[in-house]
């Protein structure tokens, strides 16, 4: 079963606007990661935030993590048409799990030129 | 870094047939993972190897599924007596230690 839920399921915006996606999870985590998937392709790692971090930036990406609410958000600023893809959060429970990832159901982002 | 390679990219087979997929991880990665992804869903964990040892298997991995990683290099995933419900994208990923996983482009399996 999936770890959590992502919100919204689909998001359509204009180029240049910001896109925010949210993710909730259920169990304790070692870290939370965001991945991107273009149609018919594999997943590409975007950013990792550890359980003791609250915010992290990478280029146009900003991720927040609230472990008390078991939630995370991904903000993409100044979006481009090339950002059109599905975005997934994934949790790593650490410990003996071998860093296997538990994914959410994803947000389909469409950026209109 | 040549990336994770999966073969074939697409497989169409009749129900009841056996299929085998191959994954070649990034060469220095000691961990290898298999996931299954159905349309509109996130990937679901199937199994995980550290070097040649299969350390964990999901309950999703029924007796019809078997995975191997001889010599700790490439891995194969075999599905015996395929069923309609096996239709999915099968994704392989590799990593070194606790580093982020690198995914291949997957094998899309269609059962007729």
Secondary structure layout:
The complex is a heterodimer of chains A (113) and B (112).
Chain A: E1 5-7, E2 10-14, E3 19-24, E4 31-37, E5 43-50, E6 55-58, E7 61-66, E8 71-76, E9 85-92, E10 101-103, E11 107-112
Parallel strand pairs in A: 2-11
Antiparallel strand pairs in A: 1-3, 3-8, 4-5, 4-9, 6-7, 7-8, 9-10, 9-11
Chain B: E1 5-7, E2 10-13, E3 19-24, E4 31-37, E5 44-50, E6 53-57, E7 65-68, E8 75-79, E9 88-95, E10 102-103, E11 107-111
Parallel strand pairs in B: 2-11
Antiparallel strand pairs in B: 1-3, 3-8, 4-5, 4-9, 5-6, 7-8, 9-10, 9-11
CATH names the topology of chain A as Immunoglobulin-like
Poorly predicted parts of chain A: none
**Quaternary assembly:** heterodimer
Radius of gyration of chain A: 13 Å
N-C termini distance of chain B: 36 Å
CA-based shape of chain B:
globular
Topology as H/E string of chain A? EEEEEEEEEEE
What's the order of the H and E elements of chain B? EEEEEEEEEEE
How many domains of chain A? The number is: 1
Alpha-carbon Rg of chain B, integer: 13 Å
Quote the beta fraction of chain B.
over 45%
The helix content of chain B, as a percent range, equals under 10%
Helix content of chain A: under 10%
CATH-scheme architecture of chain A:
Sandwich
Summing up helix and strand content along with how strands pair, one would put the structural category of chain B as mainly beta
């Amino acid at each position: 079963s999936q770890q959590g839920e992502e919100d919204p399921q689909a998001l359509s915006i204009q180029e240049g606007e910001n896109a925010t996606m949210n993710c909730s999870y259920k169990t304790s985590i070692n870290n939370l990661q965001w991945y991107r998937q273009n149609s018919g392709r594999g997943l590409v790692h975007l950013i990792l935030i550890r359980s003791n971090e609250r915010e992290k930036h990478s280029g146009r990406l900003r991720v927040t993590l609230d472990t008390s609410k078991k939630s995370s958000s991904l903000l993409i600023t100044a979006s481009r048409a090339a950002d059109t893809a599905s975005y997934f959060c994934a949790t790593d429970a650490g410990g003996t799990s071998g860093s296997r990832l538990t994914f959410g159901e994803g947000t389909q982002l469409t950026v209109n030129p | 870094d040549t990336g994770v390679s999966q073969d074939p990219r697409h497989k169409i087979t009749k129900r009841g047939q056996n299929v085998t997929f191959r994954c070649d991880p990034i060469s220095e990665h000691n961990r290898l993972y298999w996931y299954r992804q159905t349309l509109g869903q996130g990937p679901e964990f199937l199994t995980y190897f550290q070097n040649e040892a299969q350390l964990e298997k999901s309950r999703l991995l029924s007796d019809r599924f078997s995975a191997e990683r001889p010599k700790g290099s490439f891995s194969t995933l075999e599905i015996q007596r395929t069923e309609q419900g096996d239709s999915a994208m099968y994704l392989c990923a590799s990593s070194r230690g606790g580093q982020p996983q690198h995914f291949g482009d997957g094998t899309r399996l269609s059962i007729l």
